[in-house]
Structure formats: C-alpha cells, structure tokens
Write a structure and sequence with these properties.
This protein is α/β, with parallel strands linked by helices. Helix content is 34%, strand content 21%. The chain has one domain (39-306): 3-Layer(aba) Sandwich (Lysozyme-like), CATH 3.40.80. It has a six-stranded mixed sheet, with helices on both faces. 34% of the residues are buried. It binds zinc ion. Zinc ion binds at residues 123, 222, 228, 230.
Length: 308
C-alpha cells in the first residue's frame, strides 16, 4: 500500500470517529438505548414479542393480601384483602397533572436546582385514612409549611407533579438522596387499589429512567438513604421485587416495543377485566394479547391459573 492510500484511510477513519461521536453526544442516553435495541424486521422479532408477553402472562396469579400503614389515629394498620392481577401492558401515555407548588412557598421549594439525576426514590405516604388521596396530598402540600416535598404523587387514579424535576425536594432525609433523586410518593389510603397504584408508579419510574438514561439499580427506597422504614407498605409486604419487575415491563414497553400495538382482551370478563385485574375468584382466567407489528396482526390465546 502506498503512503497516500494509508493517509486517506487514516483520514476517513478519523472523520468517521469524529462524526459518530457528534451523533452520539447529540442523542440523549435513554434515546440512544432505544435506537440500538429497536426491532428491525423478521421472525426473531416476533419471538422477542413472545418473550415480552411471557413476562406479563404469569402462569399463576397470586392473591395480594397485605397491610396499609398510616400515621392517623385509627388507621395505623389496615388489612387489605385484594385479588391479584396480570400486568397487562398499557400503551396510553402518562397523564401528569400539574400541581407545582408556588415559588412563594419557600418551605417546600428551596429554589435550588439539582445538578444531576442519579436516583428515583420511592416512598409511601404513610397516610391511610380514606381521604389521603393524591388529589388531597396535592392540595395540602400547596398550603403546607412543613419542610417536606417531593416531585410526584401517585394513586390508583392520578399522578400529580409538585416540583419541577430539576429542583431539590426534601424527601430522602439525606443529602445524597435529595440532591440527586427524584421523589415519588405512592399513596396508601384505605380503599386504594394499591396494585394499580404500583403499576402507575412503575410506568412513571420507567419513563424517568429512560429520560435520564438510568439503569434499574437507580431505583431506590427512601430506606436506602436514611434507614426510614419507607416505602413501608411495599417493604412490609415483600413487594419490592414485584415493583421492579413492573418497571422492567414498562421500560421494555416504552423502549424496545414502543412501535408495536398491544391490546389485551379478557375472555373471562366476569373474573378478569381488560386492565388485567382479577375481579372475581375463579380457577382459571382466559385472555388474548392482540399484537400489531409492521401491519401484521397476531393473536395470542393465553390463560392463567389462580392460586387457591
Ligand atoms: Zn419516604
């Protein structure tokens, strides 16, 4: 090879590295992950879709009996006997209600920006009276002078945002958690469909992981920072791993499978609703996953046994 040829190859390589890097830095970390794992074409993609469906279509559905814990007198410990669920992946976007605390409330809003996001910090409200909904918490934080604040409040119906994401909140009881964490409060009021609240919180958590290019180990409990027994309901019922699994389903749904249509249809409507909730006990429930990918529709006939 002559010298000119070698120089040309070198020049092309340097330019290629230069341009690739430019492209790389322009893409947000989360989005980049989407691009590299996005499905191309072919039968192997349908096998990926089947693996995703397997994550959701549990062979066996367990009941979810647990306790809610509240600070209010008479609501310290409430037994919940709830039917289980299948985490049917829902493609609807998150509807986040703006409840940003006014700037004038300096107890809640220290007006300090966070420099970076390393953690999503999960909490339970520790309020169990039936009135302690996300809507009520949103109203009360706006009038509060207590130095406690967080970014999102989630229940089984709504998600409110109280602080801009890039602002410091007072929720982790620790500098590291407050400075680098986004705080999510999951409600625990009597009567809440806690399974659904967990699924909503998982959808929000997955979105934040994607937006900030974080991995699953960035999901923390309040306990991890200050040793407080929070999120108490999740901790005491041993449901933390279940929550992480829900986040993983949401993460896949929002990244790898974002361009695929999923629809879940209960074939046992008296026992199972289209959202995946068991509404009546039965031995078995039947349902379908209807998937449309690149104009092709496939219907998966599925069933799950209820643990008796
Ligand atoms: Zn907490």
């Amino acid at each position: 090879m002559d010298k000119r040829k070698i120089l040309l190859i070198l020049l092309v390589s340097v330019l290629a590295i230069f341009f690739l890097n430019i492209i790389k830095v322009k893409i947000k970390p989360g989005i980049e992950a989407v691009k590299t794992t996005a499905i191309s074409t072919g039968e192997e993609n349908w096998s990926d879709i089947e693996t995703f469906i397997d994550l959701i279509a549990h062979e066996e559905i367990d009941r979810t009996d647990f306790y809610l814990y509240g600070a209010e007198k008479g609501f310290e410990k409430i037994a919940v006997s709830s039917n289980g669920y299948l985490p049917f992946y829902q493609q609807e976007p998150l509807n986040i209600i703006n409840g940003i605390v006014p700037k004038s409330n300096t107890d809640i809003r220290p007006g300090r920006n966070r420099t970076t996001t390393k953690y999503i910090v999960i909490h339970n409200t520790g309020l169990a009276s039936p009135a302690a909904t996300a809507a009520l918490l949103n109203r009360s934080i706006n009038n509060s002078t207590r130095e406690a604040s967080w970014h999102f409040t989630v229940d089984d119906k709504e998600i409110y945002q109280q602080l801009y994401i890039d602002e410091v909140g007072w929720h982790a009881g620790d500098k590291e958690g407050n400075e680098y964490g986004i705080g999510i409060e999951i409600c625990t009021y009597q009567g809440i469909d806690f399974n659904t609240a967990l699924r909503k919180a998982a959808k929000l958590t997955a979105k934040l992981l994607i937006d900030y290019g974080l991995g699953f180990n960035a999901i923390k409990q309040h306990y991890d920072f200050s040793g407080k027994n929070c999120p108490q309901v999740i901790r005491e019922s041993g449901r933390w791993e279940e929550f992480i699994e829900l986040v993983k389903i949401e993460y896949l749904g929002q990244t790898k499978f974002y361009n695929i249509d999923f629809k879940w249809i209960s074939k046992s409507p008296r026992q199972l609703d289209h959202y995946g909730r068991i509404i009546n006990n039965a031995e078995k429930v039947y349902y379908q996953a209807v998937v449309i990918y690149k104009g092709e529709m496939r219907i998966f006939d599925l069933n799950s046994r209820l643990k008796q």
